[in-house]
Amino acid sequence: MSDSAIAPKKGGTGLILAVIYVTALFFIWAFVTNLVDPLIKSTKLIYSLDLFSAMLCQFAFFSAYFVMSLPSAWVLSKVGYANSIIIGLVGIVAGCGIAWSTSITHTYVTLLVGLFVACSGITMLQVAANPLIATMGDPKGSAFRLNMSQAFNSLGAFVGGMFGASFLFNAPLFKLDPDQVTLHPDLVTPDMKAVGLHLVTNVYLEIGAALALFVIAVFLVRNVIAANSPAISTAAVSPLAALKSKWANLGSIAIFLYVGAEVAVLSGMIFFLEQKQIMHLPTQLAGLLSPFFMLCAMIGRFGGGWLMNYVKATRMLSIFAICAAILCGIIIFTAHMEPASLGSTVTVNGVVVALTTGFLPGFAAILIGFFNSIMFPTIFTLTLERSSAPASSTSGLMCMAIFGGGVVPPIFGLVADATGSKSIAFVVPLVCYLYVLWFALAAKKAPVHAIEEGVSAGH
Questions:
Q1: Phi, psi of 44 (to 5 degrees)
Q2: What is the domain count for the chain?
Q3: Of 123-132, 157-166, 398-407, which range is least confident?
Q4: Is residue 455 part of a domain?
Q5: 164 assigned to some structural domain
Q6: Quick check: pTM over 0.85?
Q7: CB-based contact 259:404 (threshold 8 Å)
């Protein structure tokens, strides 16, 4: 039965329970998504890949947003929010199962297919959950609710990254010096690769089993979620309707560039922090430090969500975009700086690390996460409030734009290869943040409306 057949019930314990379950989805898909960052490092060594080939993990994962977002919006208009959420969760479980089957096929392609299928499920969740949480309650608090849910998304990203670094890098091949491996690839033995692959497939098996149980839990409360979902038109809504809206397109470009910038920084973070002129960290330690990017995002989303009660969303987005651009500028400006010793050391996870001026660009890269914090939910809400297309099709187009996470990182890598500097490559996210700034300034002057399925006002 479609959600449209059930009248929405606003308020009460049913609404609270629905918000809790939907918020949990934000944590889940972030956890799965941020496993890909340490996975890039793992596959590079397991399959003896160059960096471009290893980055195909991100391309395979985020290409699902491009392929499946519009079909997901169509499915949402047909079966409703609650059923769409169940379909999305089943898709993630299936993807984890395919990734686990790499233990049988031993092929990189199988893993890439698993990532695509898992992200197809995540795409369905994104299309359904973002407008759902935005409309659960007072329309004036839509940006606040979406930011708070995204805070739990950041928590899931942090936990997922820490989990991945702890388990995926807990193998002998990651104890080797990266520079020595580059010079002498034969140091990585077949037995080392087999152990590394075993860790990868076991992780996805465990995640798939846990999510299968969560699917059952959501199925049992599907009517509660449906009863608190926004009304959906009984007529099928074409996802392509969003292409006719000026603001749906502008917002989608902003999402494309923002997500691309964030994924590019995260994908390259381990490689960036490992550099001698930056922090000179062992692989696992760099992997454990990288998720602090998302911890900063979580802090920013909690704080940003609170500030949204007092500061206009467009102004907040402008300020955060400017700060993210400045941090990229700091990294670029210090690209050729020789690290100078600060005369002290710090012990992290049992490893003694010398403090140098290279920590400045290192921490600047991590701090970008704080200013990324409110970008996705704020761009999403600002676009829904200005788009002349139905909410489900606008949401589908914006989720399709998350494909930027599969396009911008290779460009980041291309610039790094061409210039020989991972610091100079930060010019790529810098350009992305400048567009987000322009979008925020333009959105400030545009007319707004309530988030609905049938919308014709605005552009």
A1: -60, -40
A2: 1
A3: 123-132
A4: no
A5: yes
A6: no
A7: yes
